[in-house]
């Protein structure tokens, strides 16, 4: 055969490996080139069973609905009824999750406070302490008590409307945090009592207590310092939700914040985000079971977070037994994070709108996850606050729409009976019937 | 002087009464009897008062103290003077784990020994231990001074930031990124002051200084074996 002639034998078309996909191969090449694991922000990006795998049944002959525009559907919630003299009263059961000043700019924290306050809900500090912007613009502010204790002081503790002892977060159960040197401005360095420009490690364990018995004493100390006035939440990653909820209740928590693996972080290893923890869908029922087993359901409030995006998610979490939800990533998107309006600049950073997650590098074109004064100027906290308020209102209206259709006059009255699952996995995790059946895997009395 | 029987009156009443003291209070001397190892005694004070605790305490005695002088005529449980902002806490006996953890300011004096993780994550506090300290002390310590008149256990100053550590006796081992440093005249002066404030007759010249080598300040894969 002439060398120039094409072979006549049939060939298969080029075929990509499902195991060694282009994404995987690029990870390998990046690791080989840099010698360091990938660090990024956000939560799990892999496909997981989610609240999208559940459906509401709505009303029928056996259930009658409430009129959408005429009959009331309450949304208020009180958190901290167990021990606090001053429980937190919220108009809506959607709170803003803890995000640090340092990870976020001062104006972004201000916007969260403005938006949350306008919608009648609370916002939460983060690793780095309480800023005046945030306290000043938040009518209800939850103060996170973290292992690093950056910026921690009794004066701010007493200014808080609630205290959240952070044991873990869904993006990295068992992991600490790292604020890389690029984001350590003078102000951040001063608040954290560390030199400018160095990587600031947030420890994975609290420095002065270990285990549930110690936690009980730590809660006692915080209550004594704050005169038993404010609720004390305990935030845990959704790793072992039944046992962690049980132990937090035993330790004296007023509320449990349970964060699934879709919950975001400012920065941690990608391998951690994608491979440790449980999907939010899977953690609600075991936590509710723990509350019920101890007779504490509705007395100790359960706040669910991790990938909550819409009123449907809110309604589904509450139907499974949660008292409220918290949003973080979704709130940042409402403020303008990953907005295609900045596409040209995302491209310059080697990414695209919707995929930008290098929040730790401090070069956010939207001016939200940065400490760069020039980038921060792009973000208007009043406008950001207005957008967040709108978004929270829409989520609430959506949840009410579903609740009314299910015949409920309060979001709390939603129940598992209102739900079916689209997949076997979701049915097992949510413990609601697979659509079209009266069965779910693991249902008591069934042999499967 | 106000005398307060903790077993009779209860913790809530005690801390509430201490929190009621303001800058210009005339109730400046308090005596607490029958502490019996209770937790969270005299926490969150913010007034220039003196509190004398007659006996041993449990966890977090003097936690988050501001301004007050707290004297414990006994030993203390874990986390004494945790996150102290200012003032002074003096322990006549021994201290359990995490003494002075995350403290931002003030002076903690332990006249006996301190257990493991003494000064963990300290952020400006001064700690003087007349005796020995346990392992992992000054872990991730950010700023302030830890003075040890006896010996230090394993992994002293692991992942240290800018805190200064002074040890008169032996150091079983140094933690990651902690190294011995030169004692300069300003360190001698600093020690003179801290030892005097702590009623310790040790001589500053007898101490060695340890601090951060600062090689782990920014993550570098070549240092991964150190973690």
**Within the largest sheet of chain A, what's the order of strands?**
5-15-14-12-11-8-7-6
The CATH superfamily of chain A is Aldolase class I
Question: Per the principal axes of the C-alpha atoms, what is the gross shape of chain A?
Answer: globular
Q: What is the total tally of β strands of chain B?
A: 11
Helicity level of chain A, as a percent range?
25-40%
Number of helices of chain A: 15
Low-confidence stretches of chain B: none
The quaternary structure here is: heterodimer
Q: Which structural category do the helix and sheet elements of chain B fall into?
A: alpha/beta
Largest interface: A-B, 35 and 42 residues
| General form of chain B | elongated
Low-confidence stretches of chain A: none
The number of helical segments of chain B is 3
Residue-averaged pLDDT of chain A? 94
Instruction: Indicate the structural class of chain A.
Output: alpha/beta
Estimate nothing, just give the exact number of structural domains of chain B.
2
What string, H for helix and E for strand, traces the elements of chain B in order? EHHEEEEEEEEEHE
Radius of gyration of chain B: 18 Å
Rounded to the nearest angstrom, the distance between the terminal CA atoms of chain B is 52 Å
Would you write up a description of this structure?
The complex is a heterodimer of chains A (448) and B (227). With 448 residues, chain A is an alpha/beta fold. Chain A has one domain (39-430): TIM Barrel. Helices cover 33% and strands 13% of the residues of chain A. In chain A, the strands form five sheets. Chain A has an eight-stranded parallel sheet. In chain A, strands 1-13 form a two-stranded antiparallel sheet. In chain A, α4 (154-159) links the parallel β7 (141-145) and β8. In chain A, α7 (241-250) crosses α9, α9 (280-293) packs parallel to α15 and α11 packs across α14. The longest helix of chain A has 25 residues, at 381-405. Chain A is globular, with a radius of gyration of 23 Å. Chain B is of the alpha/beta class. Chain B folds into two domains: 1-93; 119-215, no CATH class. Helices cover 11% and strands 23% of the residues of chain B. Chain B has three helices and eleven strands, in the order βααβββββββββαβ. Chain B has helices spanning 6-9, 11-19, 185-197, and strands spanning 2-5, 29-33, 50-54, 69-72, 88-91, 107-110, 123-129, 143-148, 164-167, 178-181, 208-212. Chain B has an eleven-stranded mixed sheet with strand order 1-2-3-4-5-6-7-8-9-11-10. Chain B starts with a strand and ends in a 15-residue tail after the last strand. The mean pLDDT of chain B is 95. At the A-B interface, α4 and α6 of A face α2 of B.
